[in-house]
Design a protein that fits this description.
The protein is α/β, with parallel strands linked by helices. It has one domain (about 5-140): YqgF/RNase H-like domain (Nucleotidyltransferase, domain 5, 2-Layer Sandwich), CATH 3.30.420.140. The chain has helices at about 45-55, 75-90, 100-110, 125-140; strands at about 5-10, 15-25, 30-40, 40, 60-65, 90-95. A six-stranded mixed β-sheet has the order 4-3-2-1-5-6, with helices on both faces. About 35% of the residues are buried.
Length: about 140
């Protein structure tokens, strides 16, 4: 019998951090929450509550590298966020390439009727689900 693991994924951003949940059995993910952030810093109590509720075996954080695969200022901040998650929660944290996840999220959102007003109706949680699905499929 194959063990099923629940995972949470974070789409790191300076204003919002998208969160998605998925599992290793179905290899599917779904948007879960959008956490407000101040310069990339979430309310850690809210993060802890999500971890307690979903009991993930590990966490995935989107790594916003550039199109050539090089690190950026934002990817350095995402790496720091990943280290903070590990330090605070004592869970394994994996960084995963998130190139083109925002573009894919916008495409899916448009298909679902989103009008493109991302400031008032953000889709960071949808981007997190795309990142997590990519990681789950790559882990095969």
């Amino acid at each position: 019998m194959v063990a099923v693991s629940t995972l949470l994924c974070f789409d790191f951003g300076l204003s919002n951090i998208g969160v998605a949940v998925g599992n290793t059995l179905t290899k599917e993910a779904r948007p879960l929450a959008i956490l407000p952030a101040q310069n990339g810093k979430p309310n850690w109590e809210t993060v802890t509550l999500l971890i307690q509720e979903w009991q993930p075996s590990s966490l995935v954080v989107g790594n916003p590298i550039d199109e050539l695969g090089k690190t950026t200022d934002l990817s350095e901040k995402a790496s720091r966020f990943a280290r903070q998650l590990h330090g605070r929660l004592q869970l394994d944290v994996v960084l995963h390439d998130e190139r083109f996840s925002s573009k894919e999220a916008k495409s899916r959102a448009r298909d679902m009727g989103h009008k493109g007003n991302y400031a008032t109706h953000p889709i960071d949680d949808l981007a997190a689900s795309i990142i997590l699905e990519s990681w789950l499929q790559a882990a095969d």
